[in-house]
Specification:
Layout: H1 16-22, E1 34-37, E2 47-50, E3 55-60, H2 73-84, E4 89-94, H3 112-127, E5 134-137, H4 148-162, E6 166-170, E7 191-193, H5 196-203
Parallel strand pairs: 3-4, 3-5, 5-6
Antiparallel strand pairs: 1-2, 2-4, 6-7
Helix pairs in contact: 3-4
Length: about 200
């Protein structure tokens, strides 16, 4: 369980570029296999995933406690579905980078610093995912918990368009149209095309 110790606006946030440059130095995991930024446990996480030539970028709402070689059940499901759909790796990203096992513990007000650095991380992921990056929207209905999350998603859609990203969902969407969370998906779930912008206009 991770409960934030304070609002992110009151904490020091390591810029993504600095965190990326130092990634792999802390030890405890294989940096040739894992991408983990920052590479130590703290109040936020930009990226967690495996390295490969064809990654599936999965987008949740916010990170919990997972780390390299210590994936939680959600991340295990993400990895299974990525491999089952022909990808050689996965990148777990989140709409908001603050760690909180219970999403209701997330910041009430968005930290603009954390959001800016999270978008820098998303752009890095997109640039390094090959032609037409595959982005799997997987945040579930908890996207409704904070009004600022819609703005975060819209910024991601704009960045994705810059790199020709293709958006997908997996599993049945909710009655309100929200993408299915990975945790309870069948292991053989396939990806379906997703119009992320229309979704934001109609469902958020």
């Amino acid at each position: 369980m991770h409960i934030p110790s304070a609002p992110t606006s009151e904490a020091a946030v390591l810029p993504f570029a600095e965190a990326l440059a130092a990634s792999g130095r802390s030890g405890g995991y294989d940096p040739d296999r894992w991408l983990y930024v920052p590479d130590f446990y703290t109040e936020y996480r930009y990226i967690l995933g495996t390295k490969g030539e064809k990654p599936l970028i999965c987008v949740g709402v916010n990170p919990s406690t997972a780390a390299p070689d210590a994936l939680d059940n959600t991340l295990k499901s993400v990895q299974r579905i990525a491999l089952g759909n022909g990808f050689d790796s996965f990148t777990m990203f989140n709409v908001y980078a603050q760690r909180a096992t219970r999403p209701q513990d997330m910041d009430r007000v968005r930290s603009e610093v954390l959001h800016r650095e999270n978008m820098a991380a998303f752009e890095y992921v997109l640039k390094n995912a090959g032609d037409r990056p595959a982005v799997w929207a997987a945040w579930g209905g908890i996207i409704e918990l904070r009004p600022y999350l819609k703005g975060c998603v819209l910024d991601m859609i704009e960045l994705g368009a810059k790199y020709g990203a293709a958006w997908y969902t997996a599993g049945k969407r909710s009655v309100k149209g929200h993408p299915h969370h990975p945790l309870y998906l069948k292991k053989d779930s396939t990806l379906d095309p997703f119009d992320a912008l229309t979704y934001c206009e109609e469902c958020l």
